[in-house]
Amino acid sequence: MAALSFIKPLSYLLFFSAIGFLIYTMVAGSKKLALSEKSKGDDFEIPEESRFILSFKPFYQIFGPLIQKLPIPGYKSRMNKYVVTAGLEGQVNGNDMIGFQFLIMLVFVFCGFVYFDSTVSIVLAAAAGLAYPYLWLYEKKKQRQETIKLSMPDVVDMLSLSVEAGLSFNAAVQKVCHIYRHDKDPFIVELYLMDQNIKLGRSREEALKIMADRVELMELDSFSSILIQANKMGSSIAEVLKSQAERMRSERFLKAEKIGAQASQKLLIPMMIFIFPVIFIVIFGPYLIKFIMG
Question: What is the pTM of this model?
Answer without folding.
Answer: 0.73
